[in-house]
Amino acid sequence: MNELEIRTEQPLPIDIQRGAAIARQLRDYLRQARMTVRLPRGGEHVRIEGWQVLCHMCNLPLPSIVSVRREERENGYCYIAEAVLQYGGREYRAYGVCSSDEPNWRGKPEFQLASMAQTRAAGKVLRLLLGWIVTLAGYEPTPAEEMIHEPTPPSTPTPTAPQGGTQRRVPDPELQPPIDAPADDEPREGNGHDAEQATLLRDLQRTDRDRYNRILRALHAHARQRFVDDDARRQWLYENYGKWHFPDLTLAQAREVIQLMQQGVSA
Question: Are 196 and 134 in a shared domain?
């Protein structure tokens, strides 16, 4: 009779030398997949997906959510989740809270608050164990989902060319996306402008796929710099344009959204 032997690989101890090596690898992964958020006043923070990558790199099990509860508060309500992580014979626990009075979550459906509470709990318990590796990689140890976006302060006046010249925007290198905006995506007059008002971005997939991809990448590149997560980005888009997804915007709206994110929208 054949027997199947199942072996579970145990996580190796994470000492300083191994942690530094993991940090160097983690930095490459995070940059390639863009799993970080740069906040105007809070440095660069790692999204939950980045913490999960680090968890796998350290051969650790992902945190388990053991409870989620709703509590009433004076100014609304909140969801509280508890996460647990087993490592080295120890049990690490952390709580994540998402409140209805937070600027990013005011007026959102309750299931989204419950989901974010679980995400924050998972990120926080990973931070207890692995935050020092994230710091060695050059990032802030607080998970991105725990940070609250504040309105971006007004930008400085746009420099202009000498009198008689043309006005030119000077790009902020910190917010410049790693892709180029479409060269033919300049303001148009007459029938061209009217067409952009009626043409949906998704329609470009059939007529000009290269331009569609460039515009969509530009939108997502700026959104990653301005919004703490996809839910915040979708909510802002719906509140301002009645759309949940970028491809549903018209070309004119897409250009306007890019300009707003370049100027610093209130996320």
Answer: no
User: Do 135 and 46 have their domain in common?
Assistant: yes
User: Are the C-beta atoms of 143 and 64 separated by less than 8 Å?
Assistant: no
* pTM of this prediction exceeds 0.70: no
Distance CA 255, CA 172 (A): 18
- Verify that 133 and 255 share a domain, yes or no: no
CATH code of the domain covering residue 115: 3.30.390
Lowest mean pLDDT: which of 25-29, 64-68, 103-107?
A: 103-107
Structural domain span for residue 71: 16-146
pLDDT at 106 over 60: yes
pLDDT score of 136? 94
Q: Supply the pLDDT for residue 191.
A: 47
Phi/psi of residue 38, nearest 5 degrees = -100, 115
Counting Cα atoms < 13 Å in the Cβ hemisphere of 260 gives 18
- Do the beta carbons of residue 155 and residue 263 sit within 8 Å? yes
